[in-house]
């Protein structure tokens, strides 16, 4: 024991001394840039600052509007970025739709990115003034009369890819043409204070959802991600938790309009398993807004997998993928007139004759839910007859449906469900 302690202490001394002898004083590395203005292009000066100070330095992007006209990657290590200003992506739709002008680092559905941040141990603080302007209105108007498809090249506004230990703080994304955020193939990323707003202002489209696919975030192949203090106004998923998202901490999320919070879609790739594990979500509000601005407020929280049959291929088709969703808690939820408070289905992209999905959902806990649903279908959990669901737990679940109508609770192929104060209409096929 004594010799072991001696050994440890001599190692400590050794490291202490070597660290001291290697430490040499040097001036802190700081780069500061301000927008050029007058219609000039800021992309090159922003990239030059990041390339110079993005490793072991500080980069300051001053207040104002930076005109970004080309795809950008920021590779950051042991670095701090103060983004006081707004990165405004030039709305040249045909330019960005040319696949050589975006990155395709997000594997799922081959989605495009115009701005990728990668690296380790960095902070991007946008001080509640800075962030991204996606200039989405011309995009939404352009695509209002055209087919939209996954992987068609509409760019994700802000992509974190292959990052470890990162903090994104007080960051605003306005008018995203497509998804606001994606975190992919990353670990230890904290987003704290995120704003995303996709709101059509063209009176021609009042009352229509012309902002589909403006998801707040998609998480994919990432672990240990925190989503804290989000405010999302969109026409699609407020949050979408996709394959191989594990150890997620989600707190204080307000969603205005859209499809609600999604787990999925999952099982699109037959050759890969989509596993979602250990998600702790608390303090969520789903708020319907003026229907002239955004007509949809579809779900509270919903879960979706493709069927067990392969129909076409990704990015638009697919199915048949295995996987599991397990140990999910969704707690302290307030709903304001959503269509479907809780919905689970395993028939995404499928046909009635398809084989049932093999992807399993289990240990889902819904605690302390209140508020209102526009329909009387309060719970609709329809699990695959091939595998079923197990361990569905409700606690303090009080959602009011349409007045005068008996609430309906549907659960198909659910092995054990507890805590609802009315029986669930279970038709177990397994
Ligand atoms: C941004 O730069 C591009 C290319 O130089 C230019 O065409 C465009 O007008 C600029 N945008 C703004 C808002 O200044
Ligand atoms: C992380 O980066 C900061 C500078 O932003 C640096 O002070 C710190 O030592 C780095 N941590 C590690 C573990 O390298
Ligand atoms: C796409 O961009 C590349 C590189 O700038 C260019 O060579 C190509 O002609 C463009 N394609 C189209 C269809 O515009
Ligand atoms: C979103 O943007 C619209 C249009 O600019 C604005 O009217 C609305 O107040 C914004 N929503 C939030 C929650 O900031
Ligand atoms: C919740 O997040 C919003 C920003 O979306 C923030 O203004 C508010 O202070 C947060 N609430 C708490 C209790 O932290
Ligand atoms: C799975 O299939 C997709 C095509 O749908 C392919 O791009 C991918 O590389 C395959 N993944 C593996 C692990 O084989
Ligand atoms: C998810 O992780 C499992 C291994 O844990 C792997 O087999 C599978 O291919 C991954 N799926 C995706 C979509 O990357
Ligand atoms: C379930 O997930 C929570 C975090 O959300 C974690 O603390 C807990 O240990 C997990 N339970 C199991 C059985 O893994
Ligand atoms: C239940 O959720 C509401 C928000 O919807 C919150 O105000 C309340 O404090 C929660 N109750 C408990 C016991 O956590
Ligand atoms: C349960 O299902 C049966 C058969 O589909 C239906 O007749 C009945 O109305 C349902 N009850 C509730 C409470 O939804």
UniProtKB/TrEMBL annotation:
Look up and give the organism this protein is from.
Hohenbuehelia grisea
Q: Which Gene3D superfamilies match?
A: Single-stranded right-handed beta-helix, Pectin lyase-like
Highest taxon above the source species = Eukaryota
| Keyword list, A-Z | Carbohydrate metabolism, Cell wall biogenesis/degradation, Disulfide bond, Glycoprotein, Glycosidase, Hydrolase, Polysaccharide degradation, Secreted, Signal
Q: What is this enzyme's catalytic activity, as reactions?
A: [(1->4)-alpha-D-galacturonosyl](n) + H2O = alpha-D-galacturonate + [(1->4)-alpha-D-galacturonosyl](n-1)
Q: Where in the cell is it found?
A: Secreted
Give the main EC class: hydrolase
InterPro entries associated with the record: Glyco_hydro_28, Pectin_lyas_fold, Pectin_lyase_fold/virulence
The yes or no answer to whether the keyword Repeat is present is no
Which PANTHER family does the annotation name?
A: EXO-POLYGALACTURONASE, PUTATIVE-RELATED, PTHR31736
EC number, as in UniProt = 3.2.1.67
The UniProt function text for this chain reads:
Specific in hydrolyzing the terminal glycosidic bond of polygalacturonic acid and oligogalacturonates.
**Official protein name in the record:** galacturonan 1,4-alpha-galacturonidase
Spell out the family assignment given in the record's similarity comment. Answer: Belongs to the glycosyl hydrolase 28 family.
Tell me where the signal peptide lies: 1-19
């Amino acid at each position: 024991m004594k010799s072991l302690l001696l050994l440890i202490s001599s190692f400590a001394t050794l490291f202490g001394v070597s660290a001291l002898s290697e430490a040499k004083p040097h001036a802190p590395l700081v780069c500061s840039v301000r927008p050029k203005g007058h219609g000039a292009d800021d992309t090159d000066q922003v990239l030059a600052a990041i390339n110079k100070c993005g490793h072991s330095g500080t980069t300051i992007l001053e207040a104002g509007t930076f005109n970004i006209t080309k795809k950008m990657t920021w590779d950051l290590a042991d670095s701090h970025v103060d983004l006081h200003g707004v990165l405004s992506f030039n709305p040249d739709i045909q330019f960005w739709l040319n696949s050589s002008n975006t990155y395709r680092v997000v594997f799922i559905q081959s989605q495009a990115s115009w701005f990728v941040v990668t690296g380790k141990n960095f902070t991007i603080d946008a001080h509640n003034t800075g962030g991204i302007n996606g200039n989405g209105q011309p995009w939404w108007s352009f695509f209002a009369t055209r087919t939209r498809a996954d992987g068609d090249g509409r760019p994700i506004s802000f992509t974190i890819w292959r990052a470890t230990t990162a903090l994104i703080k007080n960051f605003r994304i306005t008018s995203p043409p497509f998804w606001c955020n994606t975190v992919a193939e990353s670990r230890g990323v904290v987003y704290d204070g995120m704003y995303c707003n996709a709101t059509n202002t063209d009176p021609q489209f009042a009352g229509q959802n012309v902002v589909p696919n403006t998801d707040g975030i998609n998480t994919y192949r990432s672990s240990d991600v925190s989503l804290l203090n989000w405010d999302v106004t969109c026409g699609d998923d407020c949050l979408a938790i996709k394959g191989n998202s594990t150890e997620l901490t989600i707190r204080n999320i307000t969603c205005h309009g859209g499809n609600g919070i999604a787990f999925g879609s999952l099982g699109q790739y037959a050759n890969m398993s989509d596993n979602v594990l250990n998600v702790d979500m608390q303090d969520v509000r789903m708020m319907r807004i003026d229907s002239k601005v955004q007509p949809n407020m579809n779900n509270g929280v919903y879960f979706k997998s493709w069927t067990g049959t392969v129909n076409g291929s990704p990015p638009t088709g697919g199915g048949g993928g295995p996987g599991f969703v397990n140990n999910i808690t969704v707690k302290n939820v307030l709903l304001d007139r959503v269509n479907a408070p809780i919905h689970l289905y395993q028939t995404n992209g499928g046909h009635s004759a398809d084989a049932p999905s093999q992807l399993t959902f289990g240990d889902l806990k819904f605690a302390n839910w209140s508020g209102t649903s526009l329909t009387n279908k309060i719970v609709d959990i329809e699990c695959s007859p091939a595998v079923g669901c197990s361990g569905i737990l409700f606690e303090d679940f009080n959602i009011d449906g349409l007045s005068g109508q008996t609430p309906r609770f549907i659960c198909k192929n659910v092995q054990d469900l507890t805590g609802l104060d009315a029986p669930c209409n279970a038709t177990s096929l397994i």
